[in-house]
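Hello Y.,

Per our agreement to keep a running log of every chain we model this quarter, I'm adding this entry. I've kept the format consistent with earlier entries: sequence first, then predicted structure.
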Amino acid sequence: MSQRWQLLIALARLSPHAARAYAAQELPQGQRQLALLVAIQQALAGFPQATLRPLLLEVANQHRRLERLINRYLTTAYGQGWPSQVQADATTTPQLSASQAVALLLDQEDPWLPLFALYALTALPPATFDQITQTEQVIRVLHTGQRSPHDAIREAARLIAVAQQYGPHLAQRSDFLLSRHLPQPPEDFATMLSTLERMLFLRNVSFFQQLRLDQLRTVARLCQEQPFVQDEMLLRQGALATAC
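Predicted structure for the entry above:
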């Protein structure tokens, strides 16, 4: 979604007159996109917040980012002559089922968003996961990920396949991320958090909640796990910082 609006912003900078010619057809499309993101949030809001919180935060981020891009396009094309901000029209927000919302998320062109969504969904009970996902679409997302030239995407697809197999162990995703304790850890689980796991964990941290998914991925790949024992001193006030 955002790439098209970034191109339109570039066009508006080069030729505001030409950009204004596109506004009549692009603005309604933008409002529909915003309304669709609102509908996805509403459709998934009924699930336990702790389970799908990273995914809901990501959808909310995409909504805010798209809203900013559309308004930047309009102000670049019209200058101060554009008096109002574009927002999703509540009267035109479609009503989606959870399965329809998930299908839309898994159908995104960005290779990371479907994987991010799919891994978050594996924290749901297996019966619920099967109910709101389409097997063919899940297989397609995993197959695409496994064939990616990027090692982090292949790693994410592998992790999702393992999570599907051992889904009941991952019901408490926050506990899983923080402790890495599984009743019977499968042999092919990495000893360190994967990039995808770090992304979901960091999305829950307020400091990182405004980052784009590609920015979050960059931060996640730079992070390293640091184990601590209970009651260990983490830092002292005034001490020189050596990590973020």
